[in-house]
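Morning. Coffee machine broken again, so started the prediction first thing and wrote up yesterday's gels while waiting. Chain of 148 residues, entered below exactly as on the submission form.
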Amino acid sequence: MSNVGDYMAYVWISIAVIMAIYEMATVQLVTVWFVVGATCAAISTIFVDDITIQFVIFVAVSLVTLIATRPIVKKFRKSTVKVSTNADRLVGEVGTMKADLTDSDEVGQAKVLGGVWSVKTDNPPLKKGDKVKVLSIDGVKLIVEKAE
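Came back before lunch.
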């Protein structure tokens, strides 16, 4: 009783515990499938002494669990909540152009709520001193139009 197969149940349980601890530490669902696979491999040591068969059981159960549950996990992890930033408060505000903006491909600058922002428009030209209304935010640029 001194061969490696006698201790494989402990090896598989150790792998399952290590993977479970890693899973709890990351909370990203990256190793939970290996916990299930290692647990099944540990149970298989009761019936099978061959380490190769135990390893095949570990891999097969891990893959089947991954394939079966990954789409479900992805569906529940999708976030449909829009995370708003404090920049959203700029939408609808009126500011003043700091320089001329003559082309829709150019980026200009406008002062809005006390801060200077990069701005773009679909309706050029905008002249220095023109009042502009913020329509939306695209990345770090405000999309503006001439205020009435």
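Residues 97 and 110 are 4 Å apart (CA to CA). Going to sketch it on the whiteboard this afternoon.
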